[in-house]
Automatic annotation (TrEMBL):
Residues 20-104 form the Core-binding (CB) domain. Residues 127-317 form the Tyr recombinase domain. Belongs to the 'phage' integrase family. GO terms for biological process: DNA integration; DNA recombination. The keyword DNA-binding applies. This is Integrase. The keyword Electron transport does not apply. Transmembrane segments: none annotated. InterPro entries: CB (IPR044068), DNA_brk_join_enz (IPR011010), Integrase-like_cat_sf (IPR013762), Integrase_catalytic (IPR002104), Integrase_recombinase_N (IPR010998), Integrase_SAM-like_N (IPR004107), Tyrosine_recombinase_XerCD (IPR050090). It comes from Pseudomonas veronii 1YdBTEX2. It comes from the Bacteria. GO terms for molecular function: DNA binding.
Length: 320
């Protein structure tokens, strides 16, 4: 056993409490992340929570893995609530609960100390993701200089997220062959969470932007390669490496600043912007959910920010 957990882009050390429990405990701990969790983002988040919790347990004097009790879990959760938002704390508690479930089934520990611990209550009906007005989204797309490969790439990526409601992870996971022609229209294929594939036709502007990107950069001849790529140093040309999510986030912030947009946007902004614009123009919540590949319209409602405009109009009714 190497003592390391692969978690996507990071590698986490096996905590001391697990190592001290023996080889079997260490293997079972590794298997929880490698065999049980397929989503790299979930794997990374769960590994971080598990390592921080078990390291904290060692620091406060918990003698071994089997001695971890509900009191330890609840105390650690209280500490997390002092610095993290409720959804983040709930995710961390879920990580600890699922990890110990896995260890109990593997007969590493006799009980799950997190099973009886309640997380913070959290209810939301609207999302907190910053959303752009349609005119701002158009302003951003029009501001991008498309005389270079990086400009063509950035315009195509932003447009893809706006017009197809794509998650950034699904967009960056696309290959060139995931843009294809069907019934004389350009279609895209997205690989969503859980390995699900989701295909939909392109908006005419997205079709235009993707076609220009593929043809003018020459990557249409590399169907198995990543669709959105990094730029090779010193050449200004696309590399064969997929664009990382952090780079995409930095790009949209940089593009927004250059376009004079003051809203502090992120990758998820465009998914919410597209859904809100669609609903404002007469689209239905059910169709928006299908286009966004949401299992429930309740999830889609978190991206519906039409009420923001209503609230602003009402605020302006206060005349002094």
């Amino acid at each position: 056993m190497s003592g390391l957990v692969p978690t996507g882009s990071v590698t986490a050390h096996v905590p001391a409490l697990v190592s001290q429990a023996g080889e079997r405990a260490g293997v079972r701990f590794l298997e929880f992340f490698t065999a049980n969790i397929r989503n790299p983002n979930t794997r990374r988040a769960y590994a971080r929570a598990a390592n921080e919790f078990l390291t904290w347990c060692s620091d406060v004097g918990v003698p071994d893995l089997a001695a971890v009790a509900p009191l330890h879990v609840s105390t650690w959760i209280e500490l997390q609530m002092q610095r993290l938002a409720a959804p983040s704390v709930k995710q961390r508690l879920a990580a600890i609960r699922h990890l110990f479930d896995w260890l109990v089934v593997g007969q590493v520990v006799p009980h799950n100390p997190a099973a009886s611990v309640r997380g913070p209550s959290h209810t939301t009906r609207t999302g907190k993701t910053p959303v752009l007005d349609p005119s701002e989204a158009r302003q951003l797309l029009n501001s991008i200089d498309i005389s270079t490969p990086v400009g063509l790439r950035d315009r195509a990526l932003i447009a893809l997220m706006v017009f197809s409601f794509a998650r950034i992870g699904a967009a960056l996971g696309m290959k060139v062959e995931d843009v294809y022609t069907q019934n004389r229209r350009l279609w895209i294929r997205l690989r969503e969470k859980g390995g699900k594939q989701h295909a939909m036709p392109c908006h005419h502007l997205l079709e235009e932007y993707l076609h220009a990107y593929l043809v003018e950069t020459g990557i249409e001849d590399d169907p198995k390669g990543p669709l959105f790529r990094t730029i090779s140093r010193g050449t200004g040309q696309l590399s064969a490496t997929a664009l990382p999510q952090a780079n995409a986030h930095a790009m949209v912030r940089r593009r927004a600043l250059a376009a004079g947009i003051k809203t502090l946007i992120g990758n998820h902004t465009f998914r919410a912007t597209g859904i809100t614009a669609y609903l404002k123009n007469g689209g239905t919540l059910e169709n928006a959910a299908a286009m966004a590949n949401h299992a429930s319209t309740r999830t889609t409602q978190l991206y519906d920010r039409r009420r923001d405009e209503i609230n602003l109009d009402e605020v302006e009714r206060v005349h002094l």
